[in-house]
Design goal:
Helices cover 37% and strands 15% of the residues. The protein is α/β, with parallel strands linked by helices and 389 residues long. The structure holds ligand T4K.
Length: 389
């Protein structure tokens, strides 16, 4: 029998930059007297992310949720129109739809990828549908090509929630290349973090100005001929109902200092993933979803699916791990469609979401962070095997 852990083992432990690196940058910010409102660190962070992710346009935010709210707003979707999304996600996803005065419509997921099923999307489309909001859950890419075709056929906008998919690529191409706008999250619990933070990535430059304004209270800087005649260079007007979504200089500096460490971290996470696969895949009670070879894994979460029997279930595995001081997480149980605020929607009917219910009732995310190390990962596997005995 493996001994229980003396310390608490959480699902993740946030990654910090090297102290020397971050203190140097923070000192620079303090000395500059410029703490927020699109300062030097902010602008450098955006520039470095463009290069790192091999993308063309990015706007960074104070968190991923506000970024997603702004993405939906920037697309100017008709008030009260329907946005098709997955129930198998974090609360933030459907909440951003509701915050925009739009109606979330839940559609079922695919068994293999756990992401929105293209067939279920087609079935959910009505005359009132304006957009699709799929989630690359755990960094597993949605069927982006099929969703692209559906969106074109029905003239719908696509906003991807890629909160878990930082650096994910399909055949070497950034996951952010699909859809009208993609949201990334840089929350502390994410592989790459700026403590709190997020970003919007878009291919069409015209969104850039709109997003810039919406992120900053709707402030638009204009220059008229009359103003120029009168010697006024620029004037600020409020162009739209904006919000405060700005990332401050301290967090932007944190993100910059961490960016170059991500590849190293992902290599260490790959080793931990290999330990889990080696020790748990032989158990009939556990299925480990795998990412296809043409996809580069973000290594954000390590989900397993429990094949329930009389003696072994997801909930009993969760409870037993807890007794051993291991805090695994039931991401994402319950489904968003079962939340009080959404359960009365017609699309929340469990008959409409049978695959999502099946996955949500049996999924468990194991502790997954580089500092966990190989030995502790092996010990977690031993505890899981002991529970089965
Ligand atoms: N879309 C999707 C699909 C998302 O998953 C999320 C966020 C969003 C959108 C929204 O993006 P943001 O607005 O957050 O940028 C956590 C995160 O707070 C949340 O960002 C994340 N998804 C979600 C899946 O997980 P909780 O409520 O589970 O977090 P919490 O506080 O229980 O933390 C988890 C564990 O991490 C703790 O048990 C211990 C450890 N931890 C956490 C923090 C904050 C630390 O060791 N240190 C820390 O500082 O939501």
């Amino acid at each position: 029998m493996a001994d229980k852990f003396e310390e608490s083992i959480y699902i993740t432990k946030p990654l910090s930059p090297k102290k020397d690196d971050i203190f140097k940058l923070w000192e620079e910010v303090m000395d500059s007297g410029w703490f927020t409102n699109m300062g030097k660190q902010h602008n450098l962070f955006e520039k470095e992310l463009l290069e790192y992710l091999k993308i063309e346009n990015i706007s960074i935010f104070n968190n991923g949720t506000i970024a997603l709210i702004v993405a939906l707003k920037a697309l100017n979707l008709p008030l009260g129109s329907e946005v098709i999304t997955t129930p198998f996600t974090f609360a933030a996803t459907p909440h951003t739809i509701s915050w925009n005065g739009l109606k979330p419509v839940f559609a079922d997921i695919d068994l293999d990828t756990m992401t929105l099923s293209p067939k279920a999307i087609e079935k959910a489309i009505t005359l009132n549908t304006s957009a699709i909001l799929p989630v690359h859950v755990y960094g597993f890419p949605c069927d982006v090509e099929a969703i692209d075709k559906i969106a074109k056929k029905h003239n719908l906008k696509v906003i991807y929630d890629a909160a878990h998919a930082f650096t994910t690529e399909i055949d070497g191409r950034s996951i952010c290349d699909w859809g009208n706008i993609t949201m990334l999250s840089f929350h502390a619990t994410k592989l790459f973090n700026s403590i709190e933070g997020g970003a919007l990535v878009y291919s069409d430059k015209k969104f850039g100005n709109k997003i810039y304004e919406l992120r900053n209270f709707g402030i638009k800087r204009i220059e008229t001929e009359e103003d120029i005649k009168q010697g006024i260079k620029t004037r600020d007007i409020i162009s739209d109902v904006g919000i405060n979504g700005k990332m401050n200089e301290f967090q932007a500096a944190w993100g910059r200092a961490l960016l170059n460490e991500i590849k190293f971290e992902q290599n260490k996470l790959r080793e931990i993933a290999n330990v889990y696969v080696e020790h748990l895949s032989c158990m009939n009670e556990i299925y480990i979803p795998t990412i296809p070879k043409n996809i580069s894994n973000s290594y954000q979460y390590f989900p397993i699916i429990v094949r329930q029997n009389d003696k072994f279930s997801r909930d009993n595995l969760y409870d037993e791990l807890l007794k051993n001081n291991v805090y695994s997480r039931k991401y994402f149980y319950p489904l968003c469609s079962d939340f009080e605020c959404y359960k009365s929607l017609p699309s929340s009917n469990p008959l409409n979401l049978s695959v999502a219910h099946k996955i949500s009732n049996n999924v468990l995310c194991l502790p997954f962070y580089s500092n966990l190390g190989i030995e502790k990962a092996k010990k977690i596997c031993d505890i899981v095997k002991d529970i089965k005995k």
